[in-house]
Amino acid sequence: MRFIVQGNKKLEGEIEIKGSKNAATKALVASLLTDEECVLENFPQIGDAEITFDLCRAFGSEIKQDGSIVSIKTPSIKSATASALSRKNRISILALGPLLAREGKAEVPVLGGDKIGHRPVDIHLSALKSLGAEIEVSENSFIASAVDGLRGAKIHLRYPSVGATENTILAAVLAKGKTTLKNAAIEPEIIDLIKMLQNMGAIIGLGTDRTIYIEGVKKLKGVRHKIITDRNEAASFACLAVAGVKNKIKVKGAIHEHLITFLNALRRVGGEYRVEDDGIVFWRGDGLSAIELETDTHPGFMTDWQQPLTILLTQANGVSVVHETVYENRFGYIEDLNFMGANIKVFSKCLGELNCRFNGESYPHSAVISGPTPLKGRSLKVPDLRAGMAHLIAALIAEGESTIDGVEEIDRGYERVDERLNKLGADIKRV
Ligand code: EPU
Questions:
Q1: What's the longest Cα–Cα distance across the chain?
Q2: % of the chain at pLDDT higher than 70
Q3: Whose CA is nearest to atom 15 of ligand 1?
Q4: Position in ligand 1 atom list of the atom nearest CA 327
Q5: Which of 56, 166, 281, 430 has the fewest CB atoms below 10 angstroms from its CB?
């Protein structure tokens, strides 16, 4: 499937953001911890949700979807093995904890997902092992067991990995005893997971300095939970609003608290915004200026915001520097941007001051962007989900026609984004 985009249209009006992909998929896995029904509101209709439905169904979940409301119930674990499923996303490893809690054993496929770096899972595995899981890694799957059940433990993550933090929480809530998780990730999607689990009956405390305390309970119950809105959609639409000279877009449902660091960066570039009760309105200010920026774990500048902001920086006056410190290989989309007329060079040296794990390695993780450069419509192929959205934003601000192939990748994370953007005045045809 492809998009044919006529660029440089004036975009104006209101776009409502959907439920967060990276919170919704985890909420499905959390529901596996109980035999009661969980009802998830504000659930996005995206490809990654479908992939996660298949995973949960393989374990015995009954799932009903009515628009943005999903009900999921797993009365019993019919099978603790889902190794035959494809490796389309990175959620399956999170099911190990719930399956170990309910069945004492589990087998899930090794992970797939975007090609944005090596993406090892050593931190997940070592945390689960600390909780008493025995894990064997075969060519296609992770095979885990906890014959005597999981036990609380003191765990220090070597890096505040989002997935490993979620994995530890999901495994520890039904473990015997207390778990202290240090150097945990504290992204809004993790707080959303904690809120859902707390309402299911879990005991989870948030300490200062990235510490999470979990006291295992015997049983969790069903819940009705509203998924937070997607802060990546919010940032993408905000960058799109500011990148076009005449645009003014209200991003309905954008949550100020989740976007504090993003809004600071946007203001430094020259974007204007007004926070309202039900969303944030974005437009371009008097002129756009180059900035320097480093991605980081929350509350730093999120790695998934890096691509839309980089496109915006191609329209800013001067030389900008972006240092990506979360993934070693997340500038794959730059080649296409340069093909459209951008002037971006990627370097393996750390061009920033954060303590970066990629220092001294040969990963292309720093970008220097010289602007402003008008972009021209081109034929593009989507390399991964977030880069796909970057291609779409670039095509929307470019002069002329672009074709974007591999739209299925964009659909994995963004619900009918073409239809929603067309309502603002964009011209995107899906063929
Ligand atoms: N890492 C390890 N070992 C591990 C786990 C992670 O070395 O065991 C490294 C990774 O290789 C990476 C870094 O730690 O360099 C961060 O990975 P993290 O575990 O924090 O990320 P994740 O859980 O795999 C989630 C989102 C990503 C988002 C990151 C960072 C989901 C499904 N994915 O990934 O979102 O970029 O957190 O916020 O929640 C996306 O939505 O397109 C996406 C890639």
A1: 64
A2: 97
A3: 327
A4: 15
A5: 430
Flag whether pLDDT at 112 surpasses 90. Answer: no
Q: 356 and 314, same structural domain?
A: yes
**Quick one: 35 and 183 in the same domain?**
yes
Report d(CA 277, CA 283) in Å as an integer: 18
Domain coverage including residue 299: 2-18+229-430
Q: Which of 18, 20, 21, 22 to mutate to test the pocket of ligand 1 (most atoms within 8 A of CB)?
A: 22
Both tokens of 235, joined, read 């940032």
- Structural domain count, the chain: 2
Supply the residue whose CA is at minimum distance from atom 10 of ligand 1: 119
CA 402 / ligand 1 centre spacing (Å)? 30
**DSSP labels for 362-406?**
----EEEEEE----B--EEE--SHHHHHHHHHHHHHSBSEEEEE-
CATH code at position 401: 3.65.10.10
Q: Which residue is catalytic, options 48, 114, 384, 418? A: 114
Is 114 annotated as catalytic?
Answer: yes
Verify that 260 and 293 share a domain, yes or no: yes
Q: Do the beta carbons of residue 354 and residue 272 sit within 8 Å?
A: no
**113 has pLDDT over 60:** no
Tell me, yes or no, whether 89 and 157 share the same domain: yes
Reply yes or no on whether the pLDDT at 276 is more than 70.
yes
